[in-house]
Amino acid sequence: MIKIKGLHKSFGELKVLKGIDCEISEKEVVCVIGPSGSGKSTFLRCINLLEDITDGEVYINDVKVNDPTTDINEIRKEVGMVFQQFNLFPHMNVLENITIAPVKIRNMHQVEAEDLAYQLLEKVGLRDKAHAYPEQLSGGQMQRVAIARALAMKPKVMLFDEPTSALDPEMVKEVLDVMKQLALEGMTMVVVTHEMGFAREMGDRVLFMDEGVLVEEGTPSEVFGQPKSPRTQDFLSKVL
Amino acid sequence: MVVIDFLDNIRFDMIWNYKELFIRGIWVTLSLTAVGYIGGVIFGLFLGIGKLSKKRWVYYPSKFYVDFFRGTPLLVQILLIHTALIPSIFGQSLGFFVSGATALMLNCAAYNAEIIRAGIQSIEKGQMEAARSLGMPRKEAMRYIVLPQAIRRMVPPLGNELIALLKDSSLVTVIAATDILYAGKVVAGAYQRFWEPYITAAILYLILTWIFTKLITYVEKRYSNSYIPSQRRRIFSFGRAS
Fold first, then answer.
1. Is A184 exposed, middle or buried (0-12, 13-18, 19+ CB in 10 A)?
2. In this predicted model, what pLDDT tens digit does every residue of B143-159 receive, in sequence order?
3. Which single residue of A230, B5, B48, B125 could bond B116 by disulfide (Cβ 3.0 to 4.6 Å)?
């Protein structure tokens, strides 16, 4: 479903990604782990072209993402993204946050979009917050709304960029629970995370990145159980 | 001595004799300010967005425009527009109002452009990214997500700009616009007395700026801090999805 070939990304002189090759198939849950500054987030943001790609190729459903003739907006409709800082729209209530994209971009009827929004809010357990504004919600609630907002576009892939890193510890679980449910429903997911528990439990595959390269990949039991690379061993010994 | 002399001889009756001229002056000042300001905000919005553009042919003309109108005196601009620009386009003068309002609008737009640019840039990058990640093209993301938030932050500086424009509008007297200051000049000329007419003009401007300040404070309060619309007046909330 996602195919990445020789992905390079530089910010000026700084080389953040140094040739990443990776394939992600449908319904797979891939967790990306690694130390800070290893390029995990940049890797994720290259998939939906929030960062322009310096070199290499990214395909989603066989459409080349970084091709000048590709309409990136069409691709992004199919690729949901959840951010570390939630990025809810503070001037809109929860319902409007969720319906704005389907209504304006998918030309969905307002009533239909609101029905969908209520279904999604039910799913993330926030139906009663439909008319609240982001500033009235806790971090965990905001992130669940952000997930619902991304799902409202009915994406085929969901990208999670450290979705629980900005949360108070007691709110991490409610967000992870929503993500688990989503994974069990068969959503294709790429999750950049520091939650090793989640990666171990829900990941079909774990990618370990360090200094812009994919050091190791495998099933959670392979990567967490018998890490081959010394860098992986070193990292895991610090976080587990 | 001078003050006592003045107080003994104070003659506001001559202002009363010219009251129609002052009333007309207030009307002209207010209309010039209103037209100049509304035009300046709309034009300034395009200029401000132009200054954020990555396209050179959009960025450089916007930048040049703003630099020119902020870097030259308004008085010079008014004379240029009234005596040179408009006659050479239309073959004749279109009167002080057209020239005056145009000059104020073009000048105000340049200042507003900077306020609008800064307002847009102050919105966290994540907002644009979130909108784009949902598949919104840049224009829609700007319109539905970034601008409604940026406008709130622009309210205080745009308010200052309104007050400044109201006062700067007095410069149009040089092209014989019949504004408040013009009324003062006429009275001063007729009676050869200067305290009363100019103090009257000053007080009239003061009253107008005071009213405008109250208005701006009210609007600022409506927009401050919280995005949650109050139950009483929802008309004041921008950028609603429906």
1. exposed
2. 999 999 999 899 999 99
3. B48
For chain A, say whether B227 makes contact (Cβ under 8 Å).
yes
DSSP string, B25-92: HHHHHHHHHHHHHHHHHHHHHHHHHHHH-S-HHHHHHHHHHHHHHHHS-HHHHHHIIIIIIHHHHHSS
How many Cβ contacts (< 8 angstroms) between chains A and B? Answer: 84
Mean pLDDT, to the nearest integer, of A160-188?
A: 95
CB A27 within 8 A of CB A187: yes
Residues of chain A positioned with their CB less than 8 A from the CB of B136? 73, 101, 104-105
Put simply, whether the predicted model's pTM sits higher than 0.95 gets the answer no
Residues of B in contact with A153 (CB under 8 A): 134-135
Give which of B101, B123, B113, B145 is closest to B45, Cα–Cα: B113
pLDDT digits (tens, 9 = 90+) for A88-99: 999 999 999 999
CA distance B193 to B138: 60
Q: Exposure pattern of A24-39 as b/e (b: 16+ CB <10 Å)?
A: beeebbbbbbbbeebb
DSSP secondary structure code for residue B225 in this structure: S
Contact A32, A191 (CB under 8 A): yes
Q: Which residues contact B19 (CB under 8 A, 6 or more apart)?
A: none
Which of B124, B127, B133, B146 is the best mutation test for A, with the most CBs of A within 10 A? B133
Please state the ipTM of this predicted complex.
Answer: 0.93
The closest alpha carbon to A29, from A65, A1, A63, A49, belongs to A1
- pLDDT number for residue B222: 82
Contact A47, A2 (CB under 8 A): yes
Closest chain A CA to residue B141: A101
Q: Cβ contact (<8 Å) for B136 and A85?
A: no
For B132-142, write each residue's pLDDT tens digit: 999 999 999 99
Residue of A72, A100, A131 to mutate for B, most B C-beta atoms under 10 A: A100
